[in-house]
Design brief:
The protein is mostly helical and 354 residues long. It has helices at residues 8-29, 32-37, 41-53, 65-82, 89-121, 126-139, 141-151, 155-184, 195-205, 209-218, 224-239, 241-260, 272-285, 291-314, 327-353. It has one domain (8-353). The relative contact order is 0.18.
C-alpha cells in the first residue's frame, strides 16, 4: 500500500518530487512563447518526465517510486473526475444537434479507424492502438490519460500515444488557419464554410482543447461565432469520453469472457471515474459554485493532470519503445488524414442535414 507505515515517507517524497516537476512545467507553459504555440503544461510535463527517466532516474531513492506511481494512477483518476468542472450541459445544448452529431460521428469513426489500422494493418498491440486512437478521437492527452486505467496499459505506451497527439495536434494548429484563408473562407474559398461551420469543423477534428482555442484566434478578425462553436463542439467531444470509456470497459469484459471460455467468470470493468466525471459536469451545469471558484478548481485540476503526465513520463524508458517502429506514426498519420478530410465532409453533410 502506498501509504502503509513502511511506504508512507517514500510515497510523500515521491509525490512532492513529481509536484516540483509539474510546477516547473506550469511555469514554462505560462511563458508567452509557449502560449502562442498552444502547448499545455501536460505536454511539457511528460517531456520533462521522459527526459528525467532516461538521464537521472537512478539518482533518487527507489522508495520514492511509490509516490511517482501514485501520481500516475490515483491522482490521475481524481483529476479526470474534476475535469467535469470545465463543461456544462447548457454549453452542449447551445451548439445544437449539428455540433453533437459531428462530435459523435468523428469520435466513433476516428476511434474505430485508429484501433483497426493500428492492430490489423500496422501490427501494433491493442493498448497502444486504442490509446493512440483515443487521443485523436476525443481530447488529446487528457483522453489518453483517461483511457489508460481502463486498458491497464503500461506507461511507455501512454507516452507513445501522447507523443502522437502532440505531433499531429501541433500540425493541425498551423494547418487549419492556412486552409481557412486559402480554401474555406466564405468570400474567397472554393470549399467555403461559414465561420460557425468552420468552428464546428475545428472543434470536431482537432486534438487538444488548447489547440482548438488557438485556431480561431489565428484567423483574421476571429469571428465570435467561430470561436464559440469550436470550443463548445470540442467540449462536447470531451464529455463523450465518459460513455466511450464505459462502452470500452464493457467491450473489454466481453472479449475477456470470450477468450477465457464460458465457464470462466469475468468481472465487468466499469471505469467509475468516468461516471463521476459526468456527475461532476452535471453538478457544474447547475451553476451553484461561483465562477471564480470554478476557475480555481480548474487551475488546480490542470496542475494535478500535469503531475499525472509528468509521473507517466518518469516511467518511460526509451528501451521499452523497441519493436514499435514507425507503426504509431503511420496510425496517427492515417487518423490525421481522416480528421482533416473526413471531418470536413462529415461537417458539411451534418450542417446541410440539420
Amino acid at each position: 500500500m502506498a501509504f502503509s507505515a513502511q511506504n508512507r515517507q517514500g510515497t510523500i517524497s515521491g509525490i512532492l518530487f513529481v509536484a516540483i516537476f509539474a510546477a516547473a512545467a506550469t511555469m514554462i507553459a505560462n511563458m508567452d512563447f509557449m502560449k502562442s504555440l498552444g502547448i499545455s503544461p501536460l505536454v511539457i510535463g511528460i517531456v520533462m518526465g521522459i527526459f528525467y527517466a532516461n538521464t537521472l532516474h537512478n539518482q533518487i531513492p527507489s522508495a520514492w517510486g511509490t509516490g511517482i506511481t501514485f501520481s500516475a494512477k490515483k491522482i490521475l483518476r481524481f483529476a479526470i473526475v474534476f475535469y467535469g468542472f470545465r463543461i456544462t450541459f447548457q454549453q452542449i445544448m447551445d451548439v445544437g444537434m449539428e455540433g453533437f452529431m459531428v462530435s459523435l460521428l468523428m469520435l466513433s469513426s476516428t476511434f474505430f479507424i485508429g484501433t483497426y489500422l493500428g492492430q490489423k494493418i500496422f501490427k501494433m498491440d491493442r493498448d497502444t492502438s486504442m490509446l493512440t486512437a483515443a487521443g485523436a478521437s476525443v481530447c488529446g492527452a487528457a483522453a489518453v490519460l483517461a483511457t489508460e486505467p481502463v486498458l491497464k496499459a503500461e506507461g511507455h505506451k501512454t507516452a507513445v500515444a501522447v507523443s502522437m497527439v502532440v505531433l499531429f495536434g501541433t500540425i493541425s494548429m498551423f494547418l487549419y488557419p492556412v486552409m481557412y484563408a486559402s480554401f474555406i473562407e466564405p468570400a474567397t474559398g472554393f470549399l467555403h464554410m461559414s465561420p460557425q461551420e468552420f468552428g464546428i469543423y475545428v472543434g470536431g477534428t482537432i486534438h487538444e482543447v488548447a489547440q482548438v482555442v488557438a485556431v480561431p484566434a489565428s484567423v483574421q478578425g476571429t469571428p465570435t461565432d467561430m470561436a464559440n462553436a469550436a470550443v463548445i463542439v470540442k467540449m462536447t467531444r470531451v464529455i463523450m469520453i465518459a460513455p466511450m470509456l464505459i462502452i470500452l470497459g464493457i467491450y473489454l469484459s466481453m472479449q475477456a469472457k470470450k477468450s477465457g471460455g464460458a465457464s470462466e467468470k469475468v468481472k465487468l470493468v466499469i471505469p467509475w471515474f468516468a461516471v463521476y466525471f459526468i456527475m461532476m459536469a452535471g453538478f457544474n451545469s447547475l451553476q451553484i459554485v461561483p465562477q471564480n471558484i470554478v476557475d480555481v478548481i480548474n487551475e488546480v485540476d490542470t496542475f494535478l493532470l500535469t503531475m499525472a503526465m509528468t509521473a507517466l513520463g518518469m516511467g518511460t524508458i526509451f528501451a521499452k519503445f523497441k519493436g514499435l517502429g514507425l507503426a504509431p506514426l503511420y496510425t496517427a498519420g492515417a487518423m490525421f488524414v481522416w480528421l482533416v478530410i473526413g471531418g470536413f465532409i462529415i461537417t458539411k453533410f451534418v450542417v446541410a442535414t440539420f
